[in-house]
Amino acid sequence: MVKFMMQRIFDILPHAETITSRANATVVSLGKLSLAKHRAEQGLFLAEGIKLSEEAAGMEEIRYILIRSDDGTADAHTLAIARRAPRSARVLVLPTQVFEKISTENAPQGIITVLAPLSRIHRTLSAEDCDDIPVEKRILAVDSVQDPGNLGTIIRTAAAFGYERILLGHCADIYHPKTVRAAMGTLFRMPVDVCDSLTRRLLMIRKSGRRVLSAALGDNSLTLGQDPLRADDCIVIGNEGHGVRASILSASDGVIRIPMAPNTESLNAAGAAAVLMWEYYRTFG
Questions:
Q1: CATH number at residue 144
Q2: Nearest-CA neighbor of 47 among 109, 94, 3, 96?
Q3: Is residue 190 part of a domain?
Q4: What is the CATH number of the domain that holds 47?
Q5: Residue 152 in domain
Q6: In a 3-state reduction of DSSP, which class is residue 136?
Q7: Do 69 and 139 reside in the same domain of the chain?
Q8: H or E element: which one contains 98?
Q9: What is the DSSP letter of 214?
Q10: d(Cα 111, Cα 169) in Å, to the nearest integer?
Q11: Domain of 187?
């Protein structure tokens, strides 16, 4: 592991503030961001650790940079990330016991970036807004995936296989700490539409001439690797336990299944998404 030289924080960031009390109002507020209710009320979410903070560095949505320090020093890498924050962002230097009140990690790395929602690329669409037809060639729809780790993994995988937009219906919060962590920075670049009516959105996609295929078992289903795919297919991934909702199935052109060994029931939602997206990437690049 590369070790970075320790530097005096206030020599590099003279505008930084020190907070030493766990009862400080800002600390108490930020400490509630693990909960969806408070993320919505405050309009903030956490990106924890060096990797995520580096991915977020320089973004206009940054509101706070939190640096853990018990002696007024931090490594040069952490300070370089903090220096890229917009002037409006507050840089807070927190001793370990205060920093850990905010962090959701078991072993926090020493920097947290706090951001406002990325409304430039992440949209919440009312049912009426869902009449908008995506123009991107490669779109993934995700229905009722409730585990934030699964959702983050799907977002990360979609980015790896060239997907350009993700549609969500009844899913976990994209700003849940586990979603942000599992997406590993791709959340900051991937356009995501949170749809009040995913069913309506998929019907509009079909109306535009594209095919919608839900990953499920069913009569006359297509089999991945055997039946022909289309480059602009929109694939739907369903809930971890219950699969794709009936309303979504009715809005689809059909279903597509992944062939598996005998005596196996199903794949994890993130695993199924990865297999399907890989096959499209392998076929169409």
A1: 3.40.1280.10
A2: 109
A3: yes
A4: 3.30.1330.30
A5: yes
A6: coil
A7: no
A8: helix 96-102
A9: E
A10: 32
A11: 122-284
Instruction: Tell whether 148 is covered by a domain.
Output: yes
**Is 64 inside a domain boundary?**
yes
Are residues 136 and 25 part of one domain? no
Would you state the pLDDT for residue 1? 45
Same domain? For 101 and 164 the reply is no
In tens, the pLDDT along 44-88 reads 999 999 999 999 999 999 999 999 999 999 999 999 999 999 999
Number of domains forming the structure of the chain? 2
Q: Give the mean pLDDT per block of 10 residues along the chain (285 residues).
A: 78 97 98 98 98 97 98 96 97 98 95 98 97 94 97 98 98 98 98 98 96 86 94 96 94 94 86 97 96
Q: What pLDDT is stored for residue 218 in this prediction?
A: 73
